[in-house]
Design goal:
- The complex is a heterodimer of chains A (236) and B (472).
- Chain A has 236 residues and is of the alpha+beta class.
- Chain A folds into two domains: 4-78, Roll (Ubiquitin-like (UB roll)); 100-234, Alpha-Beta Plaits (2-Layer Sandwich).
- Chain A is 25% helix and 16% strand.
- Chain A contains six helices and ten strands, in the order E-E-H-E-E-E-H-H-E-E-H-E-E-H-E-H.
- The longest helix of chain A has 17 residues, at 80-96.
- Chain B has one domain (2-456): Orthogonal Bundle (Cytochrome-c3 Hydrogenase, chain B), CATH 1.10.645.
- Chain B has 15 helices and 16 strands.
- In chain B, strand 2 (16-22) and strand 3 form a beta hairpin.
- Chain B starts with a strand and ends with a strand.
- The model of chain B is unreliable at 7-15, 444-460 and 467-472 (pLDDT under 50).
- Classes of the chains: A alpha+beta (236), B alpha+beta (472).
- Chain A binds chain B through residues 102-103, 105, 107, 134-135, 137-138, 140, 143, 188, 211-217, and chain B through 47-49, 51-52, 54-56, 59, 163, 165, 168-169, 173, 360, 362, 386, 388-390.
- Bound molecules: iron/sulfur cluster (SF4) and FE2/S2 (inorganic) cluster (FES).
- Residues 35-38, 46-51, 63, 65 of chain A line the site of FE2/S2 (inorganic) cluster.
Chain lengths: 236, 472
Amino acid sequence: MSQQVSVRIDGELCTAAEGQTIYEVAQANGRSIPALCHMEGLSSAGACRLCLVEVAGIGRLLPACTTPVNTGMSVTTESENLAHHRVMALELLFVERNHICSVCVSNGHCELQALAQKLGVTHVRYPYNYPRLSVDTSHPRFVLDHNRCILCSRCVRVCDEIEGAHVWDIAARGINSMLVSDLDRPWGESENCTSCGKCVQACPTGALVEKGRAVEEMTKRNVVVTTLAAKRDAHP
Amino acid sequence: MRTIVIDPVTRIEGHAKITIRLDEDGKVADTAFHVTQVRGFEAFTEGRPFYEMPAITARICGICPISHLLASVKACDAIMSVRIPPTAAMLRELLHCGQITQSHALSFFHLSSPDMLLGFDSDPARRNVVGVIEDHPALAKDGVTLRKFGQQVIESLAKERIHPSWTVPGGVNAPLDRAVRDRILAGLPEAKAIALRTLSFYKGVVDQFSDEIANFGTTPSMYAGLVDDGGNLQLYDGGLRFVDAAGKVVVDRMAAEDYQQFIGEATIPTSYLKAPYFKPLGFPGGVYRVGPLARLNVADRCGTPLADAEFDEFHQRFGAPAESSFHFHYARLVEIIYALERMETLLNDPAILDRHVRATAGVNALEGVGMAEAPRGVLIHHYKVNEDGAIVWVNLIVATGHNNLAISRGVDQVARRYVDGGKFKEGMLNRVSAVVRCYDPCLSCSTHAADQFPLDIQLVNPAGEMVDRIRT
Ligand code: SF4
Ligand code: FES
């Protein structure tokens, strides 16, 4: 049995197992921390910075999804400063690519959109980037629209960790980062892709979608991924 | 040479400019109707999956999104090469009838009735819908009720008034609820009563406008509109019929995919709007009109009893074809009655509740053309895709595009009569605007951008300098 640790989350004393992340402990104790790249059943990437929290005695904000708890840690999950940072992180996601919700197949079923609504993002203060990005329609059943990708890497992880195919990677750096299949070949030509569709179900936005879904018709079933992951854990 | 610019025309749904060039004697030299917005829509959709087009194109026009949806889903049906379930076709037509009702009601009651009820030369400050409410409260109330009914039909079918996503390639994405059918049916008698009452009122006053009728775009032209196999008026389906200025059928039931054989598209330097013309007659000889008046001029009948009675009376009074563009207003009222009668027929057919409303398929053809009658006239969407279904080429021909040449001619005709002496007179300027409004042009969709349009009138002297300007 793993060592127990005691931490304070928003003042409340909580017990946790050593090695658990702040995100997990907070969730287990009824706190919800905003998150986009985190997905239950997958490893953590710390890619979206939505889950930032304050930890007493540490001068910078830490991502809850990748930071393990320590005994005596005191974590704050809600504050004006955090709200400010989270809204800013969302705005930056919106300006980076072309998320035109009204014509998106995932409109109304998008985690990015839902989180923005929940956190009260009513407008964006920064200039839009409007990159000219392609849509990969080469796969017979699925579509990758780079315009809607937030580079959360959930697809990369689900494909690698659950399906074991490792089709996806994120190539290049910074603003040039781009999701690629089979080391940058059209998805339809991928030799590794099993067409299982887990990446589509895991993707929080309209970036990975089923072909033929009209606007607003693409709903995702994250639970597919989460249950699969749980089952694999149970029978290693 | 002096130039009067009426820019843009007030009370139409978009941004337009009219230039009337005067000669040294202050007489009209020539007239051009131009649109100042920039296109850009076609480039934007390149590379996107074709089945996103209905929702994207619906957003180029806030006034008749459903027409774009319908033309677009039909083009997509063609790319998928599916025959959609009959109930889906009925539901799409039902939705379209809601759209025609609300759009025509808006055009008649809100945009055009101020001129007609309060007088073309009445005080411009009062010559608007508020003035109509004050002077003709019952009629104004009818207008609001009728438009609302059309909107409610759209809303209850598509769950969303503007830009519904219910209409999808292959059909519609949900069957009709019995309760919704009953609710629409319950509202129909009042809507029909209003439409009939308004038309009978209009028939009583239309003779007061003999001057406008005689001078609003009476230049002979061809007409184009959809008809079914029996020659009846069609709004959602059917083939395109062209008749000549004498009403003789020259092309009948043209299939959507053959449009390029019969419709050429000229680019006009003064406008971003393309000018389609009837190819066999060339440009600019092949000018044709589309929209409510054109539809009544090409159809043999409407195919519904009340509208047919009005159709007969209309042609008895004004001839077949009825030539003056002023009669677009009359035709709109007849079409509202037709749309309401069609709704009734469709809703009373038990098949309307069928649950099978969508066909599915991938890309089976690399090209697809969809055609439907928008409130303002026939609308054509033409897409080409690659084998993966990504858009590689798009062409849209919108109603105001078809009417572009006819509008220029109509304005010129009015200007020659009402413009003299090179001075700004409100009565004259408003009549020029009014002739454009007959067509109810929806310029934002023609140019794929929406904008505000304050009235901006410029007077330019022969040297090209602006010597006067009025803005509202
Ligand atoms: S495609 Fe979707 S899941 Fe993959 S990185 Fe982009 S947003 Fe995340
Ligand atoms: S959820 Fe923690 S960084 Fe994305």
